[in-house]
Amino acid sequence: MDETGVTETEVLGLLRRIKERDMPFERILSSMCTMPHPLAIQAHMEFIETNLGDPTLFPGTKGLEESVIAMLSALLHAPNAHGYITTGGTESNIQAIRAARNLSGKKNPNVIVPGSAHFSFDKAADILGIKIKKAQLDESLKVDPASVEMLIDENTIALVGTAGTTEFGQVDPIDELSKIALSRDIFLHVDAAFGGLVIPFLEEEYPFDFKVKGVSSLTIDPHKMGAGTIPSSALLFRDEACLGALATSTPYLASRMQHTLAGTRTGASIAATYAVFKHLGQSGYKRIVARCMKLVSMIEKRVADMGIPLVIQPVTNVIALRVDSPEEVASKLRERNWYVSTTLRPKSLRLVIMPHITEEILNTFLTDLREILG
Ligand code: 0PR
């Protein structure tokens, strides 16, 4: 910090110049985040100073969090779910596994996750002192329930399924996992961080939420396909006892208990999520998802014409192209200012078609891709 400050105008000019180094969303086909809805940004700014670490001071904002949880519970077929808004899919997943561990009382707990699970479960394992066992996938990159069943032992405290996998957007057979979980009386967590605000709005139905009896908890992120502001994820539990398993007493605060991982936490992104949910409604999200899926179909056709096979038939708005040397293609695309990611198993060029992507953007992108592939 300098001894004396500079004017606000100077600082803002400095910030603007620095921000120019960041990538514009119009060139990003690798992210699971998108430009927040303008209303979300406005709502975020209106609640910028709120702190739900001390909800007694912000009963209005706390009410917004309760409303968001209620709206998500209804959408996900658990009218009476219990939960809170976290900082992201990572916190939601860690807290879900923490609840399962605390409820189990087991000494050497393990959790069975699909081989495709997000790396946040590795973080959860490290923090919580839990062993992670990775189950095999079938040829369509869904977790194989038989492999899950084989990994279960007396110390298994939870099974995990993903609804909208990070790399391929695939939906695991949550109903099959549920049967296993119910028959063995094991906690089942669904990571729908990405797919939670896609799957309910697709034409095809995939069982993934609390309608499936064995689902104990679910992660769903408004800061991904919800067009909310960062940080915004929800952790939902079917039973109140699970949330109770996360309680820490906060003796000097007027509110006596906290279930969150974070202490001080913003109400701004919660207000933003409330605002977009209210404004868009289910029909608004249906429109957004339909638009993204239409663009996915457009890519499917165009890459088929180019003779590029897909890793799997897209289920959500993630499409993985089986090109030769995907890392090399990605780096050539980078030279043309396109940001795409690659996958490892199997190797592919991965595109996430988020709401900021338009037909025009894709036309330019596909022309560049065709040139690079020769
Ligand atoms: N679960 C799933 C299925 C996810 O895909 C992700 C993140 C998480 C949990 C963790 O969520 P948070 O990152 O909110 O804690 N998926 C993306 C990923 O790791 C996140 C992302 C977003 C990455 C934007 C890059 C990016 O530009 O790839």
Would you write up a description of this structure?
There is one protein chain. The N and C termini lie far apart (51 Å). The protein folds into two domains: 8-36 and 282-373, Aspartate Aminotransferase, domain 1 (Alpha-Beta Complex); 38-277, 3-Layer(aba) Sandwich (Aspartate Aminotransferase, domain 2), CATH 3.40.640.10. The protein is globular, with a radius of gyration of 22 Å. With 374 residues, the protein is an alpha/beta fold. It has a seven-stranded mixed β-sheet with strand order 1-7-6-5-4-2-3, sandwiched between helices. Helix 5 (120-128) links the parallel strand 2 and strand 3 (131-135). The chain has helices spanning 8-19, 38-46, 59-75, 89-104, 120-128, 145-151, 174-184, 240-244, 268-305, 326-335, 359-373; strands at 82-86, 110-114, 131-135, 156-162, 187-192, 217-220, 233-237, 248-249, 257-258, 318-321, 341-343, 348-352. Helix 3 (59-75) runs parallel beside helix 9 (268-305). The model has no long low-confidence stretch (mean pLDDT 97). It is built from eleven helices and twelve strands. The structure holds ligand 0PR. Ligand 0PR binds next to helix 4. The site of ligand 0PR has 17 residues, from helix 4.
Give me the secondary-structure topology.
Blueprint: H1 8-19, H2 38-46, H3 59-75, E1 82-86, H4 89-104, E2 110-114, H5 120-128, E3 131-135, H6 145-151, E4 156-162, H7 174-184, E5 187-192, E6 217-220, E7 233-237, H8 240-244, E8 248-249, E9 257-258, H9 268-305, E10 318-321, H10 326-335, E11 341-343, E12 348-352, H11 359-373
Parallel strand pairs: 2-3, 2-4, 4-5, 5-6
Antiparallel strand pairs: 1-7, 6-7, 8-9, 10-12, 11-12
Helix pairs in contact: 2-9, 3-9, 4-5
Bound molecules: ligand 0PR.
Ligand 0PR binds at residues 30-33, 88-90, 93, 118, 120, 162, 166, 191, 193-194, 221, 233.
